Amino acid sequence: MSSTKIQIRGQPLSKVLTRNHGMINSVVCGVPIKRHHRVSNVLRTSDPPLGSVPTRTDESQFLRGDGNGRFGRFGGKFVPETLMSPLRDLEDEFNFVLNDHEFQEELTTALRDYVGRETPLYFAGRLTEHYKNISQTTGGGPEIYLKREDLSHCGSHKINNALGQAMIARRLGCKRVVAATGAGQHGVATAAACAKFSMECTVKSVEGTFKDAISEAIRNWVGNLETTYYLSGTVVGPHPSPLMVREFQSVIGKETRRQAKQLWGGKPDVLVACVGSGSNALGLFHEFLGDEDVRLVGVEAAGLGLDSGKHSATLAVGDVGVYHGSMSYLLQDDQGQILKPHSIGVGLEYPGVGPEISFLKESGRAEFYTATDQEAIGGNNPSFRSISRAGVPRQLVPTLRDGAKVVVNCSGRGDKDLDTLIQRGMPSSLC
Ligand SMILES: Cc1ncc(COP(=O)(O)O)c(C=O)c1O
């Protein structure tokens, strides 16, 4: 059995995990491969066990896409012919494991015992007090609860998906796993998943931003299709990638529904999540798509301002186009060339969003707001991704009734952002 070995070229691990835009390149060795497709009992209960990956129980099919990776006009597979066959194999495998009792049990156990699920739904008393003061109502203002994905093993929601997909890679008999990481959270999660399944993992860095790391990882995958699994960290790319990532992340919303019931005997009124490309947002939202009385709110990075050209606010100012294998909203110029995104939260520097997120915008089911770097720094949550996007957006506050139960997805912890904070001068609220 091998352990996870992380090699970094030229710089210490902490740097790669914080500011570098690295690419994880993992090599699997000595893993028992399951190639059989034994259809066993579907795991369906009305109240699934803690940490379980949910199966689909909701009927609102319209909002859930056509099952073939199409959400309205978004999604699809815009890929060269050579990729069609591996993507079809992946789709078959994914559809199989969704209903495979053995797979689901192993994943549920790993999420509970390795990741530490379920993550708490925490009443944030001081944040509640803060919003009470600025909401200027005579009553109590909204109540803020944090879904603490930052307390997961490795410090973010990324591990939920990394584990699920590593298990699929193992089933497909892939000898290598390639993944792209921006801020490092998905890189660490992939390395941890590889460690769990005795896979060897090497970290390389590439020049550029998160989008360049994805391009490089896809290039590497395309050149090694026979042996390599591309482990996508977010809900972009050709079908079935967005669907798979969303499915593995939807444990967040399932838990939230149960916990809300336990805590206050009802549902949340509002769900808030940052939108880099959309995996933590969809992870929280998906369970509630059919609950029309639950508002879904995404927050994008406005960087230095929407007029500055330095932001990642794809939904606010982007247009529809094709990038990295699917159709969605993108930041692009008049010629369709992709624009360079910017955010203080490195993992948010992606010039697009997942197709399902675009569809939620266009269908009007979700609302989207923006927050600048400055607003992010002045926020209170630990991670910039969570600060900037998942702090309740100022524009939302006047629309919240007194006592509204607002769940904010705290998607990751903030130690990796400390360097940036120190460089910019720590705000007094965080000292
Ligand atoms: C902690 C954390 N939250 C959010 C994001 C943004 O990605 P997504 O929108 O897919 O959740 C990232 C991306 O690196 C992240 O590391």
Automatic annotation (TrEMBL):
Its EC number is 4.2.1.20. Transmembrane segments: none annotated. The lineage of its organism: Eukaryota, Viridiplantae, Streptophyta, Embryophyta, Tracheophyta. This is tryptophan synthase. It is an enzyme of class 4 (lyase). Pathway: Amino-acid biosynthesis; L-tryptophan biosynthesis; L-tryptophan from chorismate: step 5/5. Its cofactor is pyridoxal 5'-phosphate. It catalyses: (1S,2R)-1-C-(indol-3-yl)glycerol 3-phosphate + L-serine = D-glyceraldehyde 3-phosphate + L-tryptophan + H2O. Keywords: Amino-acid biosynthesis, Aromatic amino acid biosynthesis, Lyase, Pyridoxal phosphate, Tryptophan biosynthesis. It comes from the Eukaryota. Residues 43-66 are annotated as: Disordered. It comes from Brassica napus (Rape). SUPFAM superfamilies: Tryptophan synthase beta subunit-like PLP-dependent enzymes. Pfam families: PALP. Residues 118-204 form the Tryptophan synthase beta chain-like PALP domain.
